[in-house]
């Protein structure tokens, strides 16, 4: 996994400051809640690159031989759909060297019949299995197909080839941007979805994956975040050490998302006066209320009735302890400070989740690296709270920035999410 604005991918101008990169990612986080969809040698694993943008991408090879297409796919746990932009698309988004997947030269490529069991939901396009997928402001349409997918094996240095993998071949791709600028530098050609579903990656390789995968996102507070590896099946394990223990919380899958049972939030040891019903799942017209975990959303987003008590507690903490007042800001993050005091102690922030038995309570402690980022305002030190508001009823979500330096294990059959604090870097 690699972050999307790493210099390795070249998607975001490297002259951008931290402020400019974070500002660009704000709108992505705010749009995610409205998303809607019409170590064995044979391990399944994929490198994941984390970026200061809090977006993550994974390398992939599709096809074989001279027709093999090497690219990056966005890593997204809030969709079951894996799709790639194909040659002949109109409209298209630009990809590095104007290279789309040229399926006509791939010897094992086959378009899927509408009667194929993986054609779900059933969408007949002249006897072929079509698909149509809509995000907030962008959409992709095309034909479901099968071909070889190749994952790099970071243990053996070799590769794992999966024949007949079903994916979407995108021919109509509207309004996609994968970085602060579009154009020839973009190396992202599609999305890899890790939500269960009939056509999903998890389902197609169920005999190997068994509903288990794990990842550990590198911290976004580094200008050049490192790579990490995502594991599937038996190699998706989790363990603590002498100072930390593995925690388990209840998880469910609702409305195209991994739903978590959040009961409340504490700041500096004080539980906030938040009505917990704002985190309870409820379908509401074209969206829903609740609390989800989302790797495709850069930042934590809370419904206003939860966000405002959180924000006020942070403001009170810095006022009472350091006589600091928030500074005006032009972006959507509401709490920014300027201070030359480098000895500031940041408040503890704890998310209180329900345990797997739905009777116990399990705490996730977010430290400074998960909730704040430091800036340089024209030579003056400053920092900001990486928290975004959204109108009630939400939904609220735990974004990638807050997930960094935790290892997560998704146990889908047992509806459990395991986590443990960990420094997530492999290089």
TrEMBL record:
Zinc is among the record's keywords: no
Top-rank lineage group of the source organism: Eukaryota
Residue ranges of every copy of the Peptidase A1 domain listed in the record: 56-420
Gene Ontology CC annotation, any one: extracellular region
Record GO biological process: proteolysis
Molecular function via GO: peptidase activity
Record's keyword terms, sorted: Hydrolase, Protease
PROSITE patterns the UniProt entry points to: PEPTIDASE_A1
Family annotation (PANTHER family): ASPARTIC PROTEINASE CDR1-LIKE, OS07G0603500 PROTEIN-RELATED
Similarity section: Belongs to the peptidase A1 family.
Protein name in UniProt: Peptidase A1 domain-containing protein
Lineage summary: Eukaryota, Viridiplantae, Streptophyta, Embryophyta, Tracheophyta
